[in-house]
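S1.2 Input.
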Amino acid sequence: MEQKAMVKRTDLILSVGILVLVLLALALMVATGSTGELVAWAWERHHNVLSWYIRPLFFLPFCYFAYKRSLSGMILTLVALATSMFWFPAPERSDPMTLEFLAVEREYLTGDWTLAKALMALLVPLSFAALGFVFWKRSIVYGLVLINAIVLVKLVWSFYFGEESGGLTLLPSALAGLAVCDAVIVYVVHRIRKGSSPEPPRKASH
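S1.3 Output.
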């Protein structure tokens, strides 16, 4: 009992420490006036579609840590997700459809923020909060449904705001990542159910 309490306290301390470090890093960027340069540098690297393909895969560690009830692991995953857009070098040449979609995305993010846009942006943290909650409660099947719904909403957004070119640009990476997540989670569910199923009675030997 004491060991579980100690693990929870350690996890909470780590979570607070991670959040403090992130806030300090943001404050340092603002104080030094390097925010604009960093955003421009990150946006150039965001053109590398490899970051698009790995982004859906962050659902897996996030759900794993939620299932294990590790708040620090969940926060670390979100930090990794937020920084993954600049993990890969900027490409020498970009596909015209990619450039077109990124231009639409940038215009959307830097444009006027209406109440509707702000409410739509809230769907992102709310979706992760809901996803963390269902896996925290060990509701894996509901979590699987929620992951598919999140990716579907993202695709609808890309087709609506980025039109056909934007949607088709995002479609391969979104579907590939979703397929991997679905396969892994379905396999885990199968293993859990197989492990919890009672063994058939053995026949008495004569």
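S1.4 Remarks. Residues 158 and 167 are 5 Å apart (CA to CA).
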